[in-house]
Amino acid sequence: MTWTEKGLKELYAWPVEEEMIPFYFCTDDLTGIESMDQCRHTLEQHNWNIEAAVQDRLNEQEGVPSVFNPPPSRPLQVNTADHRIYSYVVSRPQPRALNDAKRELRFLLVYLHGDDHQDSDEFCRNTLCAPEVISLINTRMLFWACSTNKPEGYRVSQALRENTYPFLAMIMLKDRRMTVVGRLEGLIQPDDLINQLTFIMDANQTYLVSERLEREERNQTQVLRQQQDEAYLASLRADQEKERKKREERERKRRKEEEVQQQKLAEERRRRNLQEEKERKLECLPPEPSPDDPESVKIIFKLPNDSRVERRFHFSQSLTVIHDFLFSLKESPEKFQIEANFPRRVLPCIPSEEWPNPPTLQEAGLSHTEVLFVQDLTDE
User: Fold this and answer.
1) What is the 3 state secondary structure string of the chain?
2) What pTM does this model have?
3) What is the pLDDT of residues 89-132, one digit of tens each?
């Protein structure tokens, strides 16, 4: 918000929107403009500064060249008596010069040149161009100069309100705002100018030193806060990484425990199914023949754990009966094969491609008394 908008709000005691400013400008009896579009255009040309727009309008009515539409600009030139030309070119806009002085904490010397004033030529030729003055300006301050006939110089003139020329103003950052701390008006000799500028700077140097110390303290505080923030973020990232690893470790352990539990349950189911299968085989076994049955066969089984089991079978029974009997025993392995010793051979006790229907004990060539060996195949 510009100071002009603020003034309007205080004057009318109610909020002023941007689109209403042209209305106040047009209704001002001083402007004499009735077109709202022309009012808006004029205000836009002056960056919505009502005071500057009104002043420019008054200048036009009085025949003074417009500040916004001045004659084509050219470098400021001072014609001396010996026909030499000194050119003072504005190197940067005045607002930028103020910003540079504020940022760099330096004095800003502003020179407003009155083209038509009788002392301007002598001041530029003898005072401003004196080597000792140039040396002082180049080493201790920023310098900004402009003719009051130029729009930039005219705006600065309206702000500084000089009484005569040559005019110099010393500006610096004081109490956190750019302030005019010294004004020099009228013709002045080089030595006097140097003395007065030096006096102004020495008298106000403490403000720059104080501001510089405050800036350094603020910068140090900002750096410290930034370092603390970076340390906090680094610590936070480290804690987050630790927490992530802990979560991953907990998840890994959980999956491992779940896997072990699943394996345990699967093993329990397998053992239970195996036991049920043993019981079923045992129930399905035919009765054991009596010792005096001439068709019976006495078989002694040697188990892998070196234990012995004895039972009688009938010659007409299939070798599958022998396998089922051994399978039903608690001491027997889950997978096994039965071997005869004389001659050494593996008995086909379960169906296979070679023996779809296993032979009977008699067809297998077993005698009335046999010793058979049980070979463990569980791990194969």
Assistant:
1) CCHHHHHHHHHHCCCCCHHHHHHHHHHCCCCCCCCHHHHHHHHHHCCCCHHHHHHHHHHHHCCCCCCCCCCCCCCEEEECCCCCEEEECCCCCHHHHHHHHHHHCCEEEEEEECCCCCCHHHHHHHHHCCHHHHHHHHHHEEEEEEECCCHHHHHHHHHHCCCCCCEEEEEEEECCEEEEEEEEECCCCHHHHHHHHHHHHHHHHHHHHHHHHHHHHHHHHHHHHHHHHHHHHHHHHHHHHHHHHHHHHHHHHHHHHHHHHHHHHHHHHHHHHHHHHHHHHHHHCCCCCCCCCCCEEEEEEECCCCCEEEEEEECCCEHHHHHHHHHHCCCCCCCEEEEEECCEEECCCCCCCCCCCCCECCCCCCCCEEEEEEEECCCC
2) 0.44
3) 344 456 888 888 889 999 999 999 998 899 999 999 999 999 99
